[in-house]
Write a structure and sequence with these properties.
This protein is an alpha+beta fold. The chain has 6 helices and 10 strands. A hairpin with a 2-residue loop joins strand 7 and strand 8.
Length: 181
């Protein structure tokens, strides 16, 4: 399993560096701030359905990421996990979405002690409905690293595209705090 992940990371690094990544995007444009966030229902690592409508009245950090157990995605997930008490204090939840399967999410969460919900979207229905681009080469596909901050009323409050996984959680927390003023 680790060899497979390492091989995927190496291949993605090479094709990205060489500019060989074919961009595909089945959805429309990335959603913009001010629109109603599309509801969804996807399975989590606990193999239970999670819907956006469950979190009405809360801030929702809906972050899309490329691949479980890869370096940038692990850093981003660890930072969200580290900051969970801060999100809870701001009446916010964190939901991660990727093309990975429930089984992959189970492994990632177990290995890295992640307690927030990771949602499996292998058919990219939610990824497409939010307009998140999909990139890849051959059979390897991954969602771009984009995040949507959804207000307690269900509107998209802020959109980040191509985020820096090292600082993103701090950026999101600052935005929620600013929005609450």
């Amino acid at each position: 399993m680790i060899r497979k992940v390492v091989l995927i990371v190496v291949i993605l690094s090479i094709v990205t560096a060489c500019g060989l990544v074919a961009r595909a995007h089945a959805g429309g444009d990335v959603l913009q701030a001010g629109v109603s966030a599309p509801d969804f229902s996807l399975p989590s690592q606990e193999d239970t359905k999670v819907s956006l409508s469950q979190y009405k009245g809360k801030w929702v950090v809906l972050y899309f990421y490329p691949k479980d157990m890869t370096s940038g995605c692990t850093i981003e997930a660890h930072n969200f996990q580290r900051d969970l008490p801060k999100y809870e204090a701001l009446n916010a939840v964190v939901l991660g979405v990727s093309l990975d399967t429930v089984e992959s999410h189970k492994t990632f969460c177990s290995k890295d002690s992640l307690t927030f919900k990771l949602l499996a979207d292998p058919d990219h229905k939610v990824i497409d409905s939010y307009g998140v681009p999909i990139a890849g080469m051959g059979p390897i596909r991954f969602a771009h690293r984009d995040t949507f901050l959804i207000s307690p009323s269900g509107k998209v409050a802020k959109v980040w595209t191509g985020v820096n996984p090292n600082t993103h959680s701090d950026d999101v927390l600052a935005e929620i705090a600013a929005e609450k003023k």
